[in-house]
Design brief:
9 helices, alpha+beta, globular, single chain, 2 domains, nine-stranded mixed sheet, Aminopeptidase, about 325 residues, four-stranded antiparallel sheet
Length: about 325
């Protein structure tokens, strides 16, 4: 087994790894070669410093990615470890090695990006995977939050949108994009673990993604100003709602519910078979109830684990590429 950083030529092998994991774990979370290239081999990602892979010939048996985020607003820099182990190579210590590597790499990565800022490593464990939970706890991580994937079909039972007085719903356009980013940043300011999107991170990972669907993304306007936003990516035949946000002063008026109803009707017309979104189950804003009233149900849940990073001093090292 050869261990080392990921390389751009690993894209096909990584897509195969994702397919094997999706089949074994029943997640449906496949990634095409193009998705892998966009997500992992962007020019700004520090492959040498923030990735580790195990290769068995031409096959990637396991990998981990510990990206530096675009912001440490809130006083803590969160590095989210993600990756996976091929089903044929599980229970052989690969996961433990990747977590151990991440714990060792995090101090330098974080200190070079945000000197003097406390940091944490976060990882998510699917609640149907007891091995992932055992791996996190054995490495000293503590459970801090729970999240879920909520989904619904689009065959029927769609509610008629009822737009609040003074509000109009518009399809996303480049001219409205900055307003959408502002709504996302302001509406998520009090959300656990969220940091603001810069123009660069927003363009790179939200509206600049190959999976972004502008005709399936909608904005709520009041007096020409964007006060609510719903941004959609495609995941196979599912429309995946990536962001739903409303400015604080417009909460409680039905803006989010209207955006969701409008989007679901559009998804059905556009030929999607289902809609999905991820939600913080501990969110105090009542988002889970809004989604349940729109017909969404929890289909998968996960637990977020955190481990404080012990900072160490680094000198004369190049800056780390920032990425979320």
């Amino acid at each position: 087994m050869e261990w080392g950083p990921l390389k751009p030529e690993d894209a096909h092998a990584l897509a195969g790894l994702w397919a094997a994991m999706a089949d074994a774990d029943g997640t449906g979370e496949r990634r095409s070669v193009e998705d892998v290239r966009e997500q992992l081999f962007h020019r700004r990602i520090d492959l040498a410093g923030s990735t580790l892979a195990a290769r068995d010939g031409d096959r990637v048996a396991a990998f981990g990615h510990l990206p530096v985020r675009q912001s440490a607003e809130g006083g803590v820099h969160v590095l989210r470890l993600w990756g996976g182990v091929h089903p044929s190579y599980r229970r052989r210590g690969f996961g433990r090695r990747i977590v151990g590597w991440a714990v060792g790499a995090a101090p330098a990565l974080s200190e070079r990006a945000f000197p003097g800022v406390p940091a944490e490593i976060h990882l998510a464990a699917d609640d149907r995977n007891p091995g992932a939970h055992a791996l996190a706890t054995s490495a000293g991580f503590a459970a801090v939050r729970r999240f879920a994937l909520m989904e619904r079909g689009l065959e029927g039972g769609l509610r008629e949108p009822r737009t609040p007085v003074g509000v109009t719903i518009a399809t996303w356009t480049p001219e409205l994009d900055e307003g959408a980013r502002h709504v996302r940043n302001e509406s998520f300011r009090d959300h656990w673990g969220a940091v603001p999107h810069t123009r660069e991170s927003w363009a790179g990972h939200i509206t600049g993604s190959r999976n972004f669907r502008p005709l399936s993304s909608f904005l709520a306007l009041a007096g020409g100003r964007v006060v609510g936003a719903l941004i959609t990516h495609a995941s196979g035949d599912q429309a995946r709602i990536m962001i739903v946000g409303t400015l604080r002063e417009w909460r409680g008026r039905g803006v989010a519910s209207t955006l969701i109803a409008h989007a679901l009707a559009a998804f059905a017309r556009q030929g999607y078979r289902s809609a999905g979104l991820n939600v913080d189950l501990d969110n105090p804003t009542g988002a889970v109830g809004v989604y349940e009233r729109a017909g969404f149900m929890v289909t998968r849940s996960s637990t977020n684990y955190a481990l404080p990073v012990r900072q160490r001093e680094t000198r004369d090292e190049p800056p780390v590429a920032v990425h979320e």
